[in-house]
Design a protein that fits this description.
This protein is of the alpha+beta class. The protein contains 8 helices and 10 strands.
Length: 291
């Protein structure tokens, strides 16, 4: 579990990356992370995100009371705190103005995610929240209808907001959101986006779910934690003394089925390759009649 000092350093690092990539200008943007005790470290107002120091950051509670730091917190503090109150699973929030994604937000156009396997796996859609005055309850309320089901949002005529289990994951989602928006623009210039078939999207999601289950079982095994036999590929054939209930002794890598649980990563790569082949086949077929 990261210490408060490490969290502060991570926020500073994210600020530098946002600034270097041109996702923020001047004193734009804001970043926060939740600590294990429920308090929040957040960027101050009036500071360039590319030149912050760990000691510049402000510590607040979920009611917005300042607990540490000499500066005032960002005016978007209510938005960050609302996210943490509504989403116990969120540990990091990033708000920035990546140019292409923000262009979509200004145009009132959503970013299509079912055009790339990476976008499908990273986002369960990217909603466009109605315009709300920055730093006010109006902005908070514009995001609320989508908050439970999504981790990335376009803010109309404003920018973008991404969430993560920690601040680095929230940042990486901001990176990917901008990448998808850029690719979408290029595809539109070249004649239009081609959505992946729904069956291809479903196969990809199922493969990803299997990979997540694999990683969770392996994590439990590494940490010596028991897992229900109903979740194990060995099931009723488990040779452990307490097989049929739960066990710690069997490595999930030892499963004889389908090359063991590690097959998940290889399977998802194969599915991504097949999806790409299907899209290319469609593109070639669609272009045959072109002059």
């Amino acid at each position: 579990m990261a210490s408060e000092w490490q969290v502060r350093q991570d926020i500073v690092e994210v600020g530098k990356r946002l600034w270097l990539k041109g996702f923020v200008a001047a004193n734009d943007g804001n970043i926060s992370a939740r600590l294990p005790d429920g308090t929040v470290i957040i960027t101050p107002t009036g500071v360039s995100k590319g030149f912050m120091r760990p000691e510049d950051l402000v510590k607040v509670d979920l009611d917005g009371n300042r607990l540490a730091g000499s500066r005032e917190p960002t005016t978007e503090l209510p938005l960050h705190l609302s996210v943490y109150r509504e989403r116990p699973d969120v540990g990091g929030v990033v708000h920035a103005h990546p140019p292409t994604a923000t262009g979509f937000a200004v145009a009132g156009i959503t970013v299509e995610t079912a055009i790339l396997p990476e976008a499908i796996l990273a986002f369960d859609g990217i909603p466009l929240a109605e315009y709300g005055t920055p730093g006010t309850e109006e902005l908070v309320q514009s995001v609320m209808p989508y908050l439970k089901e999504h981790n990335a949002f376009l803010l109309a005529n404003h920018g973008a907001l991404t969430l993560g289990a920690d601040v680095m994951e929230a940042y990486y989602r901001m990176e990917r959101l901008e990448m998808v928006a850029q690719i979408s623009i290029i595809a539109r210039v070249l004649g239009g986006e081609r959505r992946l078939p729904e069956e291809a999207v479903e196969r990809l999601r199922k493969a990803f779910e299997r990979r997540e289950e694999t990683e969770e079982r392996e994590r439990k095994w590494r940490e010596g934690l028991p897992w229900p036999c109903s979740d194990c590929m060995l099931a009723s054939n488990c040779p452990a003394p307490n097989g049929g209930q739960s066990c710690r002794s069997q490595s999930p890598q030892s499963s004889p089925q389908e090359g063991g649980l590690r097959a998940g990563s290889e399977e998802i790569e194969a599915i991504v390759a097949r999806v790409a082949e299907e899209v290319l086949r469609e593109l070639r077929g669609g272009n045959r009649g072109a002059p």
